[in-house]
Design a protein that fits this description.
3 copies of one chain form a homotrimer. By secondary structure, chain A is an alpha/beta fold. Chain A contains 12 helices and 11 strands. In chain A, helix 1 crosses helix 7 and helix 4 crosses helix 6.
C-alpha cells in the first residue's frame, strides 16, 4: 500500500526483475496509469528524484504534478494538539488530507533536521502523510531512508554483478564539508542485506550507523582491508549518528581514489549523486570505467516506475 | 466571459448543479478542453487553489501550466504612465497581453497589501489582466474576493443542507495571529446572499466588513445569539476593514469550540483552510463529525471545473 | 544537432518559412514529438521564453518539464578538476549528464555574470551541457546570445517587411537603469546580417558591441541619421562591452519616442520585452500602431516550434 522502506516490498528480486523489464520497454504499460494523478511533494530540493519519478509516472501514463512545498507552500505544524499561534500556517494532518483528495498517489521528500535523533527517527512527516492522506504514499527520501535510491542501486548491482561468485559489496564512508543525513547509507544497508547480499561497511570510528539498519553487516574501521577484492564500492558521506548530526575531523585519506583500489581490480564504484568531486571521490574514478554513478541515476527512472506500477 | 465575482454568474443554482454532476463524473467531458491551455498565474502562495484548479482543468482535457510569478517572475509595474526607472521590471499591461497570447484562458491570484483600502478595492491586478489579456480570466483570489472558494462552499452547503427547512448560515469571525484579507468573508457573504440564503454575520465590534458585500445580512455582535440553532457555521478571520488592515486585540473566546455549539446541535462547521488549529477552531471540532472542511477542499475541484467548463 | 547560434542553422529562410507554416497550423505535427520529453532548465528567471517554449513543445506533442535550477536546484561547479570543498554542490558535468539521460532534448538558460568578458565569452554552461548531456541542446539565452529571440524577430520582420524595397533595419541602443547583457543585441546583429539584411547599429560612444557579432553592419553614433527612413527600429539596452558590464552615464534622449521617428514615417518598432516603459521606449510608441512587441512575443512560440521540430 505504501513504499517507504524495504519491509514494504514482498519480493525484492521480483521488483528488481520488473524494473529491468520496464527499462527494456519503458512505454509498454502506458495504459496502467491513464487518468491517474501523482503528486510529488518536496519539502527539500531535488534533481534526480524529481525528474526520474516524474518520468516514471509519465511512462505509465500518469500525470505527475510537482509541488515544492518548501518554496511554494508554507510552514507545516507537526505537533498534535498544538495551539497554532506561531509561525506554522497549516497542520500537516490537514495538508496531507487535502492533497490525498487531489491525487491518487502521493510521493513525499522530507529531510531530517539532524538536530534530534528522536525527532528524526520518529519520521513524523512521512508517517503523517500515510496516516492522513488516504492514498498510497511513496518516500522520495525521508529523515532516515531513501528507498527509491536503494532500489535503483540494487538494480544497478544486479546488472553488473559477477556471474561466477557472490559479489563483495562495500559501503565506504567518505569525507564531506557538510553534515549529511544517514538516509542513503541506512537504506543501502537494509536493502543490500534484505536482498541476501553480503555487506561490508567501512568508516572511521565514531561514524557507526544505527544498528537497526546494519544488523548482519561486517563493520570494519580498516579501510584497506574492507576494500580488498571488492566488486562494488558504494561511496557515501554521513554525519555521526552517536554524536547526532556532528561532523568529526577526519582524514582526507578516506576520499576514494584509484590508489585505494589496487587490490580490487574489478571494483565498480557507486554514488547516489550529487557528489563532491575530489572530496568524496576523485575525478579519475568518476570519469573512468569503474564508475556506475550515471547508470544509477538512469536506473532511478525504472526503480520508481516499478514501484508506482506495483502500487497502481 | 470572466469569473471574478458572483455577478459574473447568470444562474448560481445551475452552476452548482453542474458542479454536482461533474463531481459524480469528473472525466465525462474530457474532450471539451482538448488542445486548450490554461495558465495559472500566482502572485501569492497557494496549495488548494493551485492543485484543485490544475486538476479541474485536466479533468476537462486541458493542459494547465502553473507560473509562480512572485518567485519565478519579476516585479510588475501597476501604474499607467509610470517612468519605469525603479525596481519594477515589466508593466502589467505588457505581461498580461503576452500571457494572453500564450494561453486560451488565464487564472490569477493576487492578494491585497492591506495598506490602502482604495488601492485594494481598485483590484488593479485582476482588472488589468481582464483589460489586456484578451482571454477569459478567472480569479484565484483577488484583493477583495475569492469566488472559486465561495462556489465550492455553496456546493458544500447544497450537499449538506437540511431538507425540511431553510438553513441558518452563520459567518463567524475568529481570532488569528496575523492580519488577513477580507476576500473569503466578502465572497462568502455575497455568494450566500445571491444564492437566496439567509445569512447572519457575527464578529466583535470593529470588524465590520465592507457593506458592499454584506447588504442583506444580519450583523450580530452577540456571538452566542448568532450561533443559536445554526445549520452551518463558517469560521474565518479577517482584519479590520474600517481601521484598514489593523488587528484589534480580541477575546480568545471567539475561537469556535464545541461549547459554543451547545445550542446548535446540528451545526456543520466550515473553514476555507489553511486553519490555525486551536486559535480559530478547536481540534475537537476540526477532527469531529461536524467538520466539512475537507469536503470544501475536495469540492474546490468541481467548483473550478464547472467554471472552466462554462468559460470554454 | 544543437541550436545555440545562427551558424547552427543551414538555411535561415527555410527555417523562417517553416515557422510561418507552424504559425498557420500549430497543431499540424502533433505526432512528431509523441512520447518525447524536453527539459527546460532555467538558471535565470523567464516569462516569455519559458511559456513559449513549453507551448511550442506541447504543440508538437512533447512533454515539457520546467526546472528552475536557480531556485529548485543547487550551486553548480563549473571548473574542471575543482576540489569541491566549497559552496558548489554538484559539478555541471554530472548534472548535465544526468539530465541528458532523463530527457530527449534539453533547453538551457544561463545569463552572463557581466564580471569577466573572458568568462562570459567562454559560454561554459551551454558548452558543458552540449559536451556532457548527449542530447540536442537549445539555448534559451546564454551569456552572449539569444537565438530563439532572434529567430522570432526574423519571423516578425519577414511578416512586416515592405514589399517593394529592401528594409532598413536599425538596432538602436536605449537607456536603462541596470547593467544588461549583450545577448539580444549580439544575436539580433548576427541573425539580421546572416539573413542577408542591411543593418545599422546606433549607440552612444562607448557602447560598441563585440565585433564578432556586428561585422558587416554600419555603426553610427548619430541617432537621428541612423533612424532616418528606417523600416524597423529594434530598441534595446546593453551595458558597455569594452568597459565590460559597466553603465556609462547617458543622455535620456536615447529613449525612443515619436519625435525620433518624424523622418521614419513607416518605421515599425521592436523590443524583446520586458521593456522599461518611458525609459527605453515611450508609452506612445508601445501603445501605438508602430509597435510589434506583442507580435514578437507571440512569434516566440513558432520560432521555438520550428527549432524543436528541426531537432526531432
Amino acid at each position: 500500500m505504501h513504499f517507504t522502506k524495504v519491509e514494504d516490498v514482498h519480493d525484492i528480486a521480483a521488483l528488481i526483475a520488473d524494473a529491468r523489464q520496464l527499462k527494456a520497454a519503458p512505454l509498454a504499460h502506458q495504459n496502467i496509469g491513464k487518468d491517474r494523478n501523482i503528486g510529488l511533494i518536496f519539502l527539500n530540493p531535488s534533481l534526480r528524484t524529481r525528474l526520474s519519478t516524474q518520468r516514471a509516472a509519465q511512462n505509465l501514463g500518469m500525470r505527475a504534478t510537482v509541488l515544492n512545498y518548501d518554496k511554494e507552500g508554507w510552514a507545516l505544524e507537526m505537533e498534535d494538539g498544538a495551539i497554532m499561534n506561531g509561525t506554522t500556517v497549516e497542520h500537516i494532518k490537514d495538508a496531507a488530507a487535502v492533497m490525498g483528495q487531489y491525487f491518487d498517489m502521493l510521493a513525499v521528500r522530507a529531510f531530517p533536521k539532524l538536530q534530534s535523533m528522536e525527532e528524526d527517527s520518529a519520521e513524523t512527516i512521512i508517517r503523517q502523510f500515510i496516516k492522513y492522506a488516504g492514498v498510497p504514499v511513496i518516500s522520495l527520501e525521508s529523515a532516515t531512508r531513501h528507498p527509491l535510491q536503494s532500489l535503483a542501486d540494487m538494480l544497478t548491482i544486479d546488472e553488473h554483478k559477477p556471474l561466477a561468485k557472490k559479489p563483495k559489496i562495500v559501503l565506504s564512508w567518505a569525507p564531506h564539508v557538510k553534515a549529511l543525513p544517514h538516509a542513503v547509507a541506512n537504506s543501502f544497508a537494509e536493502w543490500t542485506l534484505a536482498a541476501g547480499h553480503e555487506l561490508v561497511i567501512t568508516h572511521p570510528e565514531g561514524y557507526e550507523l544505527d544498528t537497526r539498519f546494519t544488523k548482519g553487516a561486517t563493520i570494519l574501521h580498516d579501510h584497506e582491508e574492507a576494500l580488498e577484492n571488492a566488486d562494488f564500492v558504494y561511496v557515501k558521506n554521513w554525519s555521526s549518528f552517536k554524536a547526532y548530526g556532528q561532523v568529526h575531523n577526519t582524514d582526507e585519506s578516506w576520499m576514494l581514489t584509484e590508489k585505494h583500489l589496487l587490490d580490487a581490480p574489478n571494483a565498480k564504484v557507486m554514488h547516489c549523486l550529487p557528489v563532491r568531486r575530489n572530496v568524496e571521490l576523485s575525478d579519475e574514478i568518476l570519469d573512468g570505467d569503474r564508475s556506475l554513478v550515471q547508470m544509477q541515476a538512469y536506473n532511478r527512472i525504472f526503480a520508481a516506475q516499478a514501484v508506482i506500477k506495483s502500487l497502481l
